[in-house]
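Inverse folding, one chain.
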C-alpha cells in the first residue's frame, strides 16, 4: 500500500513534505542529491511517489561511496 509518510525501503514512518498538500521547499529531501543507485532499492510502484527517509538515504550513499 502506498503511504507518503512511510519510507518505501525500510517502511518506517517519517515526515515528508513533498506531498500535494505540503510545502516542498521545507522538506529535507529538497536539498539532497539522490544517487541513481538509490532508485534500485525503491519498489517500482513507489518510485517518484514516496520519499526515502534520511537514514536509508545515508545508508545507501555509504554503500556506493
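Residues assigned per position:
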Amino acid at each position: 500500500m502506498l503511504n507518503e509518510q512511510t519510507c518505501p525501503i525500510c517502511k518506517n514512518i517519517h515526515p515528508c513534505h513533498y506531498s500535494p498538500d505540503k510545502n516542498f521547499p521545507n522538506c529535507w529531501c529538497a536539498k539532497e542529491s539522490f544517487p541513481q543507485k538509490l532508485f534500485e532499492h525503491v519498489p517500482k510502484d513507489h518510485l517518484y511517489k514516496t520519499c526515502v527517509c534520511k537514514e536509508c538515504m545515508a545508508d545507501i550513499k555509504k554503500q556506493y561511496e
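The longest helix spans residues 54-63. The chain has a mean pLDDT of 80.
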